[in-house]
Every structure is written in structure tokens, then in C-alpha cells.
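User: Can you recover a sequence for this backbone? Please restate the input before giving your answer.

Assistant: Of course. Working from this structure:
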């Protein structure tokens, strides 16, 4: 089984899509606070997707592009389409926030929902394609060490704030076992402060029973040693 460089970050993005989708379904566009909250939510979600596409364009695709330029070209075109969809979505969301009449707000609310679904469907398919096609090419041309090196380069290109936001969504989208395995790798390879920050985020983001299971998983064996 080769390393899937997209696995955790795509789970984070999907979690953000799904949670925002549910919140959007529940939003009453006539309620100012609810409308404001969902517009803010959609805006930060789109920002994360845009940043992620930029990382792929600059740090992942070039690795494949030197061997398979036409594949990379097709994926870059998908990112352009993705950006068009996200711009449409945030524009509509912003308009919905500027309307006065109650029935217009409701009408625009359903236009926003349609636009959101379009964005969601496109991105679910796009991410699945990346995990299939781009991964297979990475695996063909690069060793495990080289793929991990690409990932390290990505992490060090990010601000601590962006790393923290993505980590939060990863935690919300990963299984307990996946979190335990991830934390063990970080504990082994990253500075102590990185692990401590991640641990604090887990304490904040995970429900108590899940957090407890993660601690159990991390300390398993340690007590006996
Ligand atoms: Fe992408």
C-alpha cells in the first residue's frame, strides 16, 4: 500500500463541505445572524479550497508535470473551473446578505444552495480523480521517501495559522485509529511543540469519548514499558 499524499487533507476538505452543507440546509436566510454565519462559513471554506488548489498547482502537480504534462494540464483546467464555481458561490452568498426584502432573501437562499451543491459535487469528483490519477503517477515516478519529502515541503510552506485550521478539519474528519497513527508519526518526527499544539487542538475539537480513545491509543504499551 503506497502513501496517499491527499488522504488527510482531502478528508479535511470533505468534512468542511459536508458540515457546511448541513448548516446551509438549516439556514433561514431571513434570520440575519444565521445568514451572516453561513456566509462567513462559505467564505472560509472557499478560502481553504483555493489555498489547497494553489498548493497542488505549485508543489504537487509540477512533480508529475515533467513526466505527464497533458495530465497536469487537465487537472489545472479543473482548478480553473473550480475557482469559477467558488467565485460564483461566494458572490451569490454575498448578494443574499445584501438584500432587504424577505421573499428575495429566501429566493436567493435557494440559489445559494444550488450553487453550493454544484461546488460540492464538482469537488468530490475532482478530489477522487486526484487520488486515483495523480497518486498513481506519483507512485510510478517517486519513492515513498520522495513523496513524504513533497508533503514536508507543503507543510513548511504554510503559515502556522493555516496548518492549525487544516489540522482542525482533519481531526473532525478522521477515524480514531487514523488520528492515533497520525499523532504517533508526528510525535516521532516533528518538534515537541508541533505535537503539543496538535494534541491541544484534538482536546478542543474531539468529543470527550473520542479524545479519551485517542489518548488510550497513544499511551497503549507505554504504560507497560
Ligand atoms: Fe485539486
Amino acid at each position: 500500500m503506497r502513501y496517499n499524499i491527499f488522504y488527510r487533507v482531502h478528508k479535511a476538505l470533505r468534512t468542511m463541505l459536508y458540515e457546511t452543507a448541513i448548516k446551509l440546509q438549516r439556514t433561514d436566510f431571513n434570520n440575519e445572524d444565521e445568514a451572516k454565519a453561513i456566509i462567513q462559513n462559505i467564505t472560509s471554506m472557499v478560502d481553504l479550497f483555493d489555498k489547497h488548489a494553489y498548493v497542488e498547482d505549485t508543489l504537487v502537480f509540477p512533480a508529475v508535470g515533467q513526466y505527464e504534462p497533458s495530465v497536469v494540464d487537465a487537472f489545472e483546467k479543473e482548478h480553473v473551473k473550480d475557482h469559477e464555481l467558488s467565485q460564483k458561490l461566494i458572490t451569490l452568498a454575498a448578494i443574499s446578505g445584501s438584500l432587504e426584502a424577505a421573499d428575495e432573501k429566501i429566493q436567493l437562499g435557494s440559489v445559494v444552495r444550488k450553487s453550493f451543491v454544484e461546488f460540492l459535487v464538482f469537488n468530490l469528483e475532482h478530489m477522487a480523480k486526484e487520488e486515483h490519477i495523480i497518486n498513481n503517477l506519483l507512485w510510478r515516478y517517486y519513492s515513498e521517501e520522495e513523496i513524504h519529502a513533497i508533503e514536508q515541503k507543503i507543510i513548511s510552506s504554510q503559515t502556522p495559522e493555516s496548518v492549525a485550521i487544516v489540522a482542525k478539519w482533519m481531526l473532525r474528519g478522521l477515524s480514531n485509529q487514523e488520528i492515533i497513527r497520525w499523532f504517533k508519526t508526528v510525535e516521532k518526527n516533528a518538534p515537541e511543540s508541533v505535537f503539543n499544539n496538535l494534541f491541544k487542538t484534538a482536546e478542543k475539537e474531539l468529543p470527550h469519548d473520542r479524545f479519551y480513545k485517542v489518548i488510550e491509543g497513544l499511551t497503549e504499551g507505554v504504560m507497560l514499558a
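That completes the design. Residues 102-141 form the longest helix (40 residues).
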